[in-house]
Design brief:
Layout lengths: L5 H22 L27 E6 L9 H16 L3 E6 L6 H12 L4 E4 L5 H7 L7 E5 L8 E6 L1 H15 L4 E6 L4 H15 L6 E6 L6 H13 L4 E4 L5 H8 L3 E6 L10 E7 L2 H13 L5 E5 L6 E4 L7 H16 L9 E2 L5 E3 L7 H4 L18
Helix pairs in contact: 2-9, 3-4, 5-6, 5-10, 7-8
Pfam families: Bmp
InterPro entries: ABC-Purine-Binding (IPR052910), PnrA-like (IPR003760), TAT_signal (IPR006311)
Organism: Piscinibacter gummiphilus
């Protein structure tokens, strides 16, 4: 037998060990499976939608927010709007914008700055708004006291004649001369209606009432308003009302020891001794409605005319000098206006020319009221350009 060398034996032993190891792997225990992947992290909640940009709203004022009357009332309502809607809206205003071509420029400028809802707050803005509206279809225009509309122009107004009538009740009881005075702004139906309603209210408690009117042919001109008030006092009027925008009439009455009313806003502070009450407008309810319409996509053209019933008109801060029974009568009328049981313009009503304008028990509709161009019996003189 051939003897194997030591190197050969070692070589054979090595191969045997490798073979045994191979057999163990091939026939013995299986390989461990790869570990399963870790479960995925739960998907995070969807990112919140970007916050909508605020609706930009612009107010264009014919006067100053410090006038204590018309523009002051509008600006108070603008502030109420901001409080109501918070960061859903942003508002700005431009004051002392004359009626006419300059207003047209301002409306275009506000639209250019991103305003999508624009309130033009005086009658004389009607034609400027109607001129720019067709060029700015994505802007909604709201025009105060106007009567013309377009696809993106709506009108709104307050029944200021209701406040005038309630003031008249007080005036009729407080006058000693039986002569009342009104400082009129511009002889349009709105203002003529207020003069007449003031007179009707006064005549409801004092049939002897006569009303004198001095026109200043401007909405806001304190020196002219004061001059007109002085003229009325010199003519025998001892209780004054105004349909102008400043507090000048009340201040004049205070300085001359006569009575007067605040108009559009509570003007007590401007003439505490002269002040009998203030016939005020609250524009906030309408501004909230209009803004809600724009935000919700329900805005549409048309016309809105709100009064005591909707919380837009009131008479406030009635003086302690006014007798209790007169205060009660005012409250009764106010309640009737609110629930619809009382009508100011209910016949028989006769014009200053002696002709009947409403038959007995006939109630004027809004078409009649919006077209008044005559004085009622008891108002002296003639309407400029009218009857």
């Amino acid at each position: 037998m051939t003897q194997l060398s030591k190197r050969t034996l070692l070589s054979i032993a090595g191969w045997s060990t490798l073979a045994a190891t191979a057999a163990l792997v091939g026939c013995g225990k299986k390989e461990e499976p790869a570990p399963a992947p870790a479960p995925a992290e739960p998907a995070s909640a969807a990112a919140p939608a970007p916050k909508a940009d605020p609706l930009k709203i612009s107010f264009v004022y014919v006067g100053s927010i410090g006038d204590g009357g018309w523009t002051f009332a509008h600006d108070n309502a603008r502030k109420a709007l901001e409080k109501e809607f918070g960061d859903k809206i942003s508002t700005n205003y431009v004051e002392n914008v004359p009626e006419g071509a300059d207003a047209e420029r301002v409306f275009r400028d506000q639209a250019g700055q991103g305003a999508k809802l624009v309130f033009g707050t005086t009658f004389g803005y009607m034609e400027p708004i109607l001129k720019v509206a067709p060029e700015l279809k994505d802007v909604k225009f709201e025009h105060a006291t106007g009567f013309k509309t377009a696809d993106n122009v709506r009108t709104y107004d307050s029944r200021t004649y209701e406040g005038a009538y309630m003031a008249g009740i007080i005036a009729g009881a407080m006058t000693k001369s039986n002569t009342l005075g009104v400082v009129g702004s511009v002889p349009i139906p709105e203002v003529i209606r207020n003069i007449n309603s003031f007179t009707l209210g006064a005549q409801s408690v004092n049939p002897k009432i006569k009303t004198k009117v001095v026109w200043v042919n401007e909405w806001l001109n304190p020196p002219k308003e004061s001059e007109a008030a002085t003229s009325l006092i010199n003519g025998g009027a001892d209780v004054l009302m105004q349909n102008t925008d400043s507090n000048a009439v009340l201040k004049t009455a205070e300085s001359k020891g006569k009575f007067a009313f605040g108009w559009d806003s509570d003007m007590t502070a401007y003439g505490p001794q002269a002040h009998l009450a203030s016939a005020v407008i609250n524009w906030a309810p309408y501004y909230i409605k209009a803004t809600k319409d724009a935000l919700e996509g329900t805005w549409s053209t048309g016309g809105v005319w709100w009064g005591v019933k909707e919380g837009a008109i009131d008479i406030v801060s009635i003086s302690d000098k006014v007798p209790a029974e007169i205060k009660t009568k005012v409250e009764t009328v106010k309640a009737g206006l609110k629930d619809g049981t009382f009508s100011i313009w209910k016949g028989p009503i006769v014009g200053a020319d002696g002709k009947e304008v409403l038959k007995a028990d006939q109630v004027a509709d809004d078409k009649f009221l919006s077209g008044i161009t005559f004085y009622v019996k008891g108002v002296e003189g003639k309407v400029p350009g009218g009857k």
